[in-house]
Write a structure and sequence with these properties.
Layout lengths: L4 E7 L3 H17 L2 E7 L5 H12 L6 E4 L9 H7 L11 H9 L7 H13 L7 E5 L6 H10 L3 E5 L6 H5 L4 E4 L17 E4 L3 E2 L5 E2 L4 H4 L5 E2 L6 H20 L10
Parallel strand pairs: 1-2, 1-3, 4-5, 4-6, 6-7, 7-10
Antiparallel strand pairs: 8-9
Helix pairs in contact: 1-9, 5-6, 5-9
Length: 262
């Protein structure tokens, strides 16, 4: 009897964050959801931010609460995320949701890894028994990405920028996920012929253009599937944010449709 509601909290005037929030608000409108952006000055204090989040989580019309990262340096990011009700944590960053993902229980998973899984499904990539390498170990992408791949019975290796013989490791991957945040780190020669490459990195090149962690023109000559930057994983992240919001709304209404399972 009502539209699912997503509330986004943006603190400060970070240019990239402004773009991300604008895209999320636009997506909500296009999907018919209620979307609201709460813009706070960079001088916002920890108690002020916490009070806003607690107020949002107490509202019946709010199904999803998202705190746009990064936050200004004077704010405690972990403490802020802990305030969000796990049932409304559509980013999947709360320790309760992270723990549920770890032990394989239904939960709200982080949107970028979830978007990557949707892309793999759409492309028909066989994951059972496949060798997957995730380059990146963040709580936002690398770790949850590895867990989602493990749930699909892939054999997963988590690497990072300091991994020894990284090129050789990547060259053995049937599925390669690059999520380090270093432009062009993964070269074409690192890609196994016929592999699937998911480029999560978003970096600003010397010419001002957005580029990924993968040298795209080199890698596309060897990969069977590869995502571009921009226009690859990014739109899927927003789509899965809306999916999580819808899932949260259904669960809060007492429903758990099978199609919402991970």
């Amino acid at each position: 009897g009502r539209r699912p509601g997503l509330d986004v909290v943006l603190v400060g005037d970070d240019a990239a964050s402004q773009v991300y929030v604008r895209n999320k608000a636009k997506a909500c409108e296009e999907a018919g959801m209620r979307g609201e952006v709460h813009r706070l000055p960079a001088t916002t204090t920890q108690p002020e931010l916490v009070a806003l989040l607690r107020g949002l989580c107490a509202r019946d019309d709010v199904d999803g609460v998202l705190v746009q990262l990064p936050l200004p340096r004077h704010l405690d990011e972990a403490a802020v995320l802990d305030v969000v009700d796990p049932a409304r944590d559509v980013d999947g960053f709360h320790p309760v949701n992270a723990g549920a993902l770890l032990v394989g229980r239904p939960t709200l998973a982080p949107c970028t890894p979830l978007g990557c899984m949707r892309l793999l499904e759409h492309a028909g990539v066989a994951l059972e028994g496949a060798r997957a390498v995730v380059v990146g170990r963040s709580n936002i992408v690398g770790k949850p990405m590895a867990l989602l791949l493990l749930q699909r019975s892939a054999t997963v290796t988590v690497a990072h920028s300091r991994t020894r013989e990284l090129a050789q490791l990547c060259a053995e991957a049937d599925v390669l996920v690059a999520a380090v945040g270093r432009a062009g780190l993964v070269r074409g020669a690192w890609v196994k012929p016929g592999a699937t490459v998911l480029d999560v990195g978003i970096n600003r090149g010397a010419d001002g253009k957005l580029v990924g962690d993968v040298a795209f023109d080199e890698a596309r000559e060897r990969a069977a599937w590869i995502t571009p930057v921009p226009g690859g994983v990014g739109p899927m992240t927003i789509a899965c944010l809306l999916e999580n919001t819808l899932r949260a709304a259904w669960r809060r209404a007492g429903y758990a449709p099978a199609e919402f399972s991970l």
